[in-house]
Amino acid sequence: MGRYLLRKLAGHLILVLIAACVTYFLAATSLDPRSGFTGRNPAPSPSAVTAILNAYNLNPDTPVVVRFARWARGVLHGDLGRTVAGGQVDDEFRRRVAVSVRLLVAATVLGSVGGVFLGAWSAARQYRAGDRAATLLSFFVLAMPVFVTAVTLQLWARDFNQALGFTVIEYIGEFSPDAKGTWAVLLSRLRHLLLPSVVLIIVEVALFSRYQRSTMLDVLDSDFLRTARAKGLSRRTAQIRHGLRIAVLPVVPLLVYNTLLVFTGAAFIEKIFGWHGMGEWLIDSITTDDVNAVAAVGLFTAVLVLIAGLLSDLLYAALDPRVRLR
Hints:
mainly alpha
């Protein structure tokens, strides 16, 4: 088992290095940090712009290999460089990660787990009214772009607040600036968290319920389930204890990767609801030609893939004892 995980770790580390290098070279050769200075008033002199870009290791005139070597040396020492605006990428990175953690982790986990159980429940009731209703609602959610769902809920929340005459559901930002005190700030954060979390949970449940229903149907007529029933287990107990454990195996990698990679993939939700997390930062960094910020997000995503791969392997081994013998 240990040798198996070490082989996996070595392979993932190589992929992380390749992904980080490719991301930096793509950003450094495609983006032009100099363009961000052209619209300023008063406009800085060309020599001043060159001096700033040299100080931030962003000058496009410097060979990209030289810039990459400086950036990689800084990363090894825990320094992700400077943004095009002059701030430390490290500080912005930590702030953005904290925002994404608060917004995404709980909702994604709840949505994934809910989707697995809904899919298993639907499979156990194949072609009944409940299964047909769950299938119809899931396809409806998946067919609707996530930004349409988010904006629709925002408009509903606005109309609901107007009907009541006061604000109950918040739908913009992370918290209200006028909230004072620990409990008031905590309540404000929870109210602002509600709507984007609902959007994420709805989408996750719809997505994973379809996968889980399909895999669960493949095991419902298996011999091992009939054997479990013959030994005295009830139909529900046999399906949950034995059937679901096998049926969830093909879905485990998707669950883990989706839970972690949503950090940089929830840009629409972060933009619409005014949460300044990693996904929004990636889009803003590309539009402002911020090479070091884009490279930092690329490195972060590659590390997430590494962690997701290891977690997926561990969960797979825990659910399937045959993996431990390899």
